[in-house]
Amino acid sequence: MLGKVLKYDLKYMIKNMRVFYILSIFFAITTRILFEVEQSVIINIIGQISVGCMIAMLANILINTMTRSWVRFSSSLYKDESYLTHTLPVTKNDIYNSKLIQTFLFLFIGFVVILISLFITYYSKENWQVITNIVKNITIGLNMNTIFFVTMFLIVVFLEIFNAIQCGFYGIILGNRKNNKKIGYSVLFGFILYLVSQTIVLSLIFVYGLFDSSVMGLFQTETVSIDANAFKILLVLTSLLYVIIIYCMSMLCKRTLNKGVNVE
Known about the structure:
Blueprint: H1 2-36, H2 41-78, H3 82-85, H4 92-122, H5 125-141, H6 146-175, H7 182-209, H8 213-220, H9 228-257
Helix pairs in contact: 1-2, 1-4, 2-4, 2-6, 4-6, 4-9, 6-7, 6-9, 7-8, 7-9, 8-9
């Protein structure tokens, strides 16, 4: 039954997100074309408008992935649509898992579309050389593999956003257990949970630093010099902590949902 619930969640997200995917690629292509043709005042103005629209679409992809995930979660569990959702022969765990899978998939797709759009817009041998040189300078200074650095950086950013979305889910669950001002409480609880999750990550890294002087040095030094080994550990440890926090919070969300849902 999880598959059927997930199918409706995916249809909802595709319906609302595809316009941003299409427009981001469209403006990336038009920007690339306008940058390639012979420049004039009008062409330059149109090109800058196009690149501005492309960047706006990229921002909208991330913002709408988050907001639409929250809206879908709230509407299917607590609004009019919830009357149908709760009559289906499906557990609340499956309902929550569906929302989590949907969020993961569309956040991943959003990252891919953003990277493709940036590639279409800015790729050239010269630009690629500049970017690779910057990254190599960073990784050489940190004595770190370039692919490892870029991959871990993207993973940390991805998990950071995914964690923020799930904090919003838990905030909605807790907010809707109140008798009034549910939206306000949902936002408040979600924000508090996000701050708590960030504090937990930072605190656990600090605790790890008590046993690893190189990591502790990141908390103590005032210089821009960073220990290469400490930075590697920081990236991997942060990723693992986010995964653990996301898993634990999902368990808490399911546990709270199974206590009962107050439908409006």
